[in-house]
Amino acid sequence: MKPYLIGDTLRSARFWIQDFDAMRVADMICATKNGDGSPKLVIFQGICRYMNLHSIHRCSHIGTRFDANDFLERGKNGRIVFAGDSICRNQWESLICMLAQGVSNQSTIYEEHGNPITKHKGFLSIKFQEYNLKVQYYRVPYLVIIDRPPQIARRSEGVIRVDKLHRFSDKWIGANVLVFSSGHWWNQDKTLNSGREWNKGGTCNTSREPETDYSKLELEPPNNIMIYEATEQMKSAMRTVNFLNITYLTEFRSDGHPSRNSEPGTPVDAPEDCSHWCLPGVPDTWNELLYAELLRMEFRTRMT
Questions:
Q1: Any residues with CB less than 8 A from the CB of 145 and at least 6 apart, and which?
Q2: Average pLDDT of every residue of the chain
Q3: How many CB atoms lie within 10 A of CB 25?
Q4: Which residues does UniProt assign to the signal peptide (predicted)?
Q5: Among candidates 68, 1, 13, which has minimal Cα distance to 227?
Q6: How many other β-carbons are positioned within 10 Å of the β-carbon of residue 75?
Q7: pLDDT at 55
């Protein structure tokens, strides 16, 4: 599934605004604000800053395209798994906040193992108690096993074993929805609209609004074509799998990165973060598309 933008959909009327004083989703999630400290509509993420957030609390959602109550009902007694890298975690955090709109008692949403929601946990599981729904994240950047070289080895390198899934894969069995996301780690360089890679002088702190010049957009990455062909082959084997290609849609939003607005304590000379996304922000759109695809598939756990 490759979503396209039709007309002026970049300025769609459906956004959600952060409740900055109450929002609690994860430790150091980027929150969008204007320079004067007032909340800003997500679509124009010009200036971001990180906040210290520790538990899930009130998020404000405006609009009807994403129906949190319906999503929660469809996933009742189920399990949704996100497996991948830190961009995957971005989407996981986004979905948690979006689903929280459908829960009146926010204390019934929690990390079921009591783990702090930090950036370095290999596994996190948020439970929506009223619906007995678990939304889990497994940190597996390559999805497959990586053999690390011995520490005493001088001229050895790690090996990526593309024919063997990560050890966490046993825990994904039985998930009602399984989202894989690891493309970020398979790209050697992250090209920006400035025409240079992020680690070679590229920048993303000059954008204040979505890109409207279509000529600046990159060609379809070759790996996307290969992924699409692979998923089509899996479908022919009667496997329920879909490729959500958000590359084209997301490429308009270089304004949505944290850029130099990093969490407190980050060195002033640290490189820009032009990979991850502010929240609320672009990953919310990915989850709206995920929800739309689940509706198309008539997804429902049908568990009692």
A1: 160, 161, 164, 165, 166, 167
A2: 71
A3: 24
A4: none
A5: 1
A6: 24
A7: 31
- Would you call the peptide bond into 116 cis, given omega within 30 degrees of 0 as the criterion? no
Which residue do the tokens 């404000």 mark?
60
Q: What is the pLDDT of residue 225?
A: 85
Q: Are strands 159-165 and 144-147 parallel, antiparallel or unpaired?
A: antiparallel
pLDDT at residue 303, as a whole number: 64
* pLDDT tens digits for range 238-293: 777 888 888 888 888 888 887 776 666 777 777 777 888 888 888 988 999 999 98
DSSP per position, the chain = ------SSGGG-S------TTT--SSTTEEEEB-TTS-B--TTS--SEEEE---S--------SSS-HHHHHHHTTT-EEEEEESHHHHHHHHHHHHHHHTT-S-GGGEEETT-----TT-SEEEEEEGGGTEEEEEEE-TTSEEEEPPPTT-SS---EEEEEEE-TTHHHHTT-SEEEEE-GGGG-SS-B-TTSSBGGGT---TT-SS----GGGPPPPPHHHHHHHHHHHHHHHTT--------HHHHTT-GGGS-BT---TT--TTPPPB-SS--SSSHHHHHHHHHHHHHHHTT------
Residue 106: the pLDDT is 83
Residue keyed to tokens 């070289």: 149
301, 72 Cβ separation under 8 angstroms: no
CB 284 within 8 A of CB 94: yes
Q: Which of 251, 254, 179, 247 minimizes the C-alpha distance to 209? A: 254
Which pLDDT band holds residue 53 (cuts at 50, 70, 90)? very low
Identify whether the C-beta of residue 194 lies closer than 8 Å to the C-beta of residue 211.
no
Q: Are 26 and 117 in contact (CB under 8 A)?
A: yes
Q: Are 135 and 92 spatial neighbours (Cβ–Cβ below 8 Å)?
A: yes
Q: What's the longest Cα–Cα distance across the chain?
A: 58
